[in-house]
Amino acid sequence: MSADTLLEVRNLKRYFPIRGGLLQRQVATVQAVDDISFDVRRGETLGIVGESGCGKSTTARLLIRLLEPDDGTVAFDGRAVATSDGIPVRELRRHVQMVFQDSYSSLNPRCSVEDTIAYGPSVHGLAWEAAKARVREILAKVGLDPALFAARYPHELSGGQRQRVNIARALALEPKLLVLDEPVSALDKSVEAQVLNLLVDLKRDLALTYVFISHDLNVVQYMSDRVLVMYLGKVVEYGPVESIYANPRHPYTRALLGAMPSMDPDRRGEHATLTGDPPNPINPPPGCRFHTRCPYAEPCCAAAEPRLAADASVSAHYTACHMLVPGSGHSAAPRIAA
Description:
Blueprint: E1 5-20, E2 25-41, E3 45-49, H1 56-63, E4 71-76, E5 79-80, H2 89-95, E6 96-99, H3 113-123, H4 128-141, H5 146-149, H6 159-171, E7 177-181, H7 189-206, E8 209-213, H8 217-223, E9 226-231, E10 234-240, H9 241-246, H10 251-258, H11 299-303, E11 309-310, E12 318-319
Helix pairs in contact: 3-4, 3-6, 4-6
């Protein structure tokens, strides 16, 4: 792990069993996250995008150990998570916190805002009075007046205010990394912009690192330094946001970006977007999982799974596509020099 890498994920895998029959035996598995690897650098925002069901939220829960991986490793700040000589999960959660999509269900309706935010620091050893003092400080940072909001309950808050409370709760342990799982998708657009700008300010002021998960490609472009594109549990493209958006290399990424809404009539999509739903993750297609929907698919795409390969023209831009690998057997692949 390099010095500027805060989080390192290697070969992470999580399958969910499906049980059926009279004895509820396992009859199949959902391959939610299947052998993915990536890094998160200190001080950056890594955006994760993809269609619903591609594994984004499962990845988020694996990072913070709300789910246990079936295989693979996660290392935080150079220490492997949940190993004998690594970082315990309890300590990991002091440094990595999560903000969920549903701002209401992620708050306890019986706890006031003050109690909700103070609970984490108190569990980790901070005296209750000191924890309440921290609550007042953090509420001010997220744009809520402590005198007005500390004693309120979730049902007395708007959606934007509840999400600010969720962000405050995540900040209460003074983490280094925030995992943000669709944090603004349930908000009105005007409120969404306010919360996004708040996150940008907090990242700058508190020297935070973000993993930002969203289906909204405009939001990801605004927030992210690098982007990871997932499809059916796999990483298909990964690189700097400018490179991904200006020159997407994978057909799936091009289809996603082609479907982005734009207010500029000169940027209206000229190509047909994808049709149909992703294949069933219980029984994904062999080889490249995208080949059943890809307009460029050839026999080699079903025969072998492409690996992430670096783009020679752009630093740190990786794509998993046979069209870009010399000698892959695809007609569009570069030829191997004699």
